[in-house]
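Following up on my earlier message about zinc ion. Here are the inputs again, as you asked, copied directly from the submission form:
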Amino acid sequence: MAAACHLPASAITDVLPQWFASRAAACDDLAASGRLQPGDAGCLAALTGVTEAVPCSALPALAGTSDGRPPVRATRACWRCAARTGCNGPVPVHLPAHQKACARHRIWTGRAIQADLASAPDIIRACQHAWRLARWHGITWLVLAETTARQQANDAAHNRAMVSQRAAALAASNGVDPEDPDIAEAARYPETIARAAVILRSAARPGGPE
Ligand SMILES: [Zn+2]
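Thanks, got it. Here's what our run produced:
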């Protein structure tokens, strides 16, 4: 919100309860320290000139409860989306846990690196497949299936060659190291999602979506 208001984070956290500052320092508003108090969301809304419903729907920590809330991951906003709103620095955000890339700009939003996916169209297709799987099975089941799929490393020589080829293409077009963990995860993503789809299909209940 500080970035959206073009203010330093301290200008906001200095006049709010302490837990806002500790979570902002961790770049994670779901970090464990501090507790949401009645009125906190209203303070933040009043300070930034929006209605209380805006921060409550945008910031998971202010929603008050995790019941029924889809799982999220703390990351940085797609740099091109942030630039459209005038934010040129890194903007910490929570995204749905399965969302690995910006659909609008086709940019992989890794932990440390954001990579343009133009040189790897099969990763873009895998992202679209993941969205469909999330719609059919739910985000939680997809994320669990992805974790299992990653653990079941596929040793097929054909797949290894495809993954190396993708990592090399991403590294060359983005000027980064092909061994970087974010690039490696992106390069493996089509195989991960294909395997996750098989896992979800085999686990689907009779009469379920697949
Ligand atoms: Zn974007």
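One observation from looking it over: Confidence is low (pLDDT under 50) at residues 205-210. Hope that helps, and feel free to reply on this thread.
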